[in-house]
C-alpha cells in the first residue's frame, strides 16, 4: 500500500476525511451551499456536490453509483417540506428516500452512511 493510500485509511488516526457526495436541490440546499461559499465559510474538499433541480429527482441508482465509486457517505438535501419550488418534489423525496436505506442494507452498505436533510437557502 502506498503512503498516499495509507493517509486515506480511517483506522490510521491521522488526516483521513470521508468522501461525501451531496445531491442538493438547486433552489434551497444548493443555494444555501452557494451562500456559505460567498460568505467565505469553508467546507472540506472531500465533499462533492451534485446539483439537481429538486430532491424529488434523486434516483436510487444515483445513490448506489456514488457508493460504488468510493463515497463514504451520501447526503440528499432539499427544501423544507412546504417550501418546494416544484410544490411537492420534496414530499416525493421524503416518501421514497427512506426506502433507499432498505436497498442499501440489501446490497450490503451500512444505511447509516446515507443521510437526508432539509435546508433553506437562507440557512447558508
Explained architecture:
- One of its GO terms (molecular function) is metal ion binding.
- InterPro entries: MvhD/FlpD (IPR003813).
- This protein has 124 residues and is of the alpha/beta class.
- It has a single domain, classed as Lumazine/riboflavin synthase (Rossmann fold).
- The protein has four helices and four strands; from the N terminus they run αβαβαβαβ.
- Residues 1-8 have low confidence and may be disordered.
Write the layout of secondary structure elements.
Layout: H1 3-6, E1 20-25, H2 29-38, E2 47-52, H3 60-68, E3 73-78, H4 89-106, E4 114-118
Parallel strand pairs: 1-2, 1-3, 3-4
Protein name: F420-non-reducing hydrogenase iron-sulfur subunit D domain-containing protein
InterPro entries: MvhD/FlpD (IPR003813)
GO molecular function, one term: oxidoreductase activity
What is the gist of this entry?
This is F420-non-reducing hydrogenase iron-sulfur subunit D domain-containing protein. This protein has four helices and four strands.
Features:
oxidoreductase activity; disordered N terminus; alpha/beta; flat; metal-binding; 124 residues; metal ion binding; Rossmann fold; F420-non-reducing hydrogenase iron-sulfur subunit D domain-containing protein
| Gross geometry | flat
Helix content: 25-40%
* Mean pLDDT reading: 82
Oligomer: single chain
The CATH class: Alpha Beta
| Major sheet details | 4 strands, parallel
Tally of alpha and pi helices: 4
Reported CATH architecture: 3-Layer(aba) Sandwich
Number of beta-strand segments: 4
Task: Give me the side-by-side strand order of the main sheet.
Answer: 2-1-3-4
Q: How much is the radius of gyration in Å?
A: 16 Å
CATH topology: Rossmann fold
Q: Uncertain segments of ≥5 residues (pLDDT<50)?
A: 1-8
Report how far the terminal alpha carbons are from each other: 39 Å
The CATH superfamily appears as Lumazine/riboflavin synthase
Number of domains: 1
Amino acid at each position: 500500500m502506498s503512503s498516499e493510500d495509507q493517509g486515506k485509511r480511517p483506522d490510521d488516526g491521522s488526516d483521513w476525511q470521508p468522501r461525501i457526495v451531496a445531491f442538493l436541490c438547486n433552489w434551497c440546499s444548493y443555494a444555501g451551499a452557494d451562500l456559505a461559499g460567498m460568505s467565505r465559510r469553508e467546507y472540506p474538499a472531500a465533499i462533492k456536490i451534485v446539483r439537481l433541480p429538486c430532491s424529488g429527482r434523486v434516483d436510487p441508482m444515483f445513490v448506489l453509483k456514488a457508493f460504488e465509486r468510493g463515497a463514504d457517505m451520501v447526503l440528499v438535501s432539499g427544501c423544507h417540506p412546504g417550501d418546494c419550488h416544484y410544490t411537492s418534489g420534496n414530499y416525493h423525496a421524503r416518501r421514497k428516500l427512506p426506502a433507499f436505506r432498505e436497498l442499501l442494507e440489501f446490497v450490503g452498505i451500512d444505511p447509516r452512511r446515507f443521510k437526508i436533510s432539509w435546508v433553506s437557502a437562507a440557512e447558508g
